Amino acid sequence: MVRHPSYYKLFVYLCVIYILYALVINLVVHPGAATFLSHKTDLSHELKPQIWLKVMYVHVAFGCLAMASGLVNFVSRNYEKHRKFHRVNGYFYTASVFLVVLSSGYMAPCATGGRVSSVGLNVLSMIWMAVTVIAIVHVRKKRIVQHRRWMVRSYAFCFTNLLIHLFSSVLHQSGVDYVNSYIIGLYGAIAVVLAAPAVIFRVQGKL
Ligand code: HEM
């Protein structure tokens, strides 16, 4: 696979900055998620804030661990030399994805935007787990190129939260109300995480 060094380095820096930002903002600066929770009105499921917050911490922690471990496996240049590490780290990534999906399953029924958001988030979770398992099946059958491609597809889902907040804050700043910004941001994020890998493969093929 051809790498364009400057884009590649920029991507690594952006991932590291986002991981640190997500950890600090959600676990240190706003550990009570008060603003986010204040928009949850009209819920069809009862929200228990203390449990929700604990699940959210697990969710954020493993989301960031998935991002970090995935990044490490993509950047490690000498794969042959660090084969065992790559494998262990890869299973750690898969376990982290599973825990993000599990915690997402708890939070989704109370998602901002109600049922329309819950359905999108649950579908996204199922696709993410399936894509990750497909990547593992490929490597177990020694199909390395397919493994790498499916792992790129899987890794794209790590950007869900970043994209939701990016789209929804632009929309909200432009005057759309918070809940509708969130719903549109969510479906925009789903479209990007599903489409981006195909675009990356096409661009890489031309480099
Ligand atoms: C891997 C990177 C991810 C990080 C760092 C992350 C982080 C967060 C954070 C901080 C929240 C709390 C609310 C907010 O500020 O948005 C949240 C909520 C949530 N996330 Fe994630 N997330 C990630 C990926 C995902 C993925 C891939 C899914 C689904 C497949 C997901 C499903 C959910 C759900 C269902 C909620 C609750 C939404 C709500 O209450 O409206 N997250 N996430």
- Strand/helix succession: HHHHHHHH
Helix content: over 70%
Quickly give the structural class: mainly alpha
Secondary structure tally, helices = 8
* C-alpha end-to-end distance: 10 Å
How many domains is the backbone divided into? 1
What is the count of β-strands? 0
Main sheet: strands, sense, barrel:
none
Give an overview in words.
- α7 (160-173) crosses α8.
- The chain has one domain (5-206).
- The relative contact order is 0.09.
- The protein has helices at residues 5-29, 34-38, 49-75, 83-107, 115-140, 144-156, 160-173, 178-206.
- The N and C termini lie close together (10 Å).
- The chain is built from 8 helices and no strands.
- 79% of the residues lie in helices and 0% in strands.
- The protein is mainly alpha-helical and 207 residues long.
- The structure holds protoporphyrin IX containing FE.
- Protoporphyrin IX containing FE (HEM) binds next to α1, α3, α4, α5 and α7.
